[in-house]
Amino acid sequence: MSHTRSALSRLTRSRARLGAAALTVALVATVSACGSDSSTDEPKAAAATSAESLVVEDPWVRGTDGAKDATMSAAFMVLDNEGDEELTLTGASTDVARSVEIHEMAVVDGKSVMRELDGGLVLSPGKGQLLQPGGFHLMLMGLTGPLRAGDEVTLTLELADGSTTEVTAPVKAFTEEEEHYHAPGTGDHEH
């Protein structure tokens, strides 16, 4: 009988040691997982987006007073890529127009024509692009109402990486003559 008690006592102690050993292993594993890799505890820096590298200066939108076609207008500005990587402006949107396209002026069959730019407007690192009358510009089509000098238009510029940036552009008076744009008061477009 005492032999059986002694065997039961040894079995109970062995189970207790085995349980304690398992608990120790589990605690060590948990502590190791919490403190072994400090880099996973630190927040990772978010990758810079194209919108963070894009600087927009001097935006403005052509007013529709006196325009031949008051359903369309154009937005102009200076776009600077201050980042280290190329970025591409792929589109834009605004509440004042049904659609916005990036347009360029090109010579086709000896005539200067305005057309949508395929593939977006690419900005090299450290470089800029002027969006201006007679050159690249954002074409606002299907205006929802007149644009008068002094109004403001909010444009959302869309970039190839999916990032966006908002621009508020004042509306300025502008004239159209012979199918292309002329800034008022400039003598550089005499006909």
TrEMBL record:
Residues 1-33 form the signal peptide. Keywords: Signal. The keyword DNA-binding does not apply. The keyword Signal applies. InterPro entries: LpqE-like (IPR007410), Lxx211020-like (IPR058248), PCuAC_sf (IPR036182). This is Copper chaperone PCu(A)C. It comes from Nocardioides jishulii.
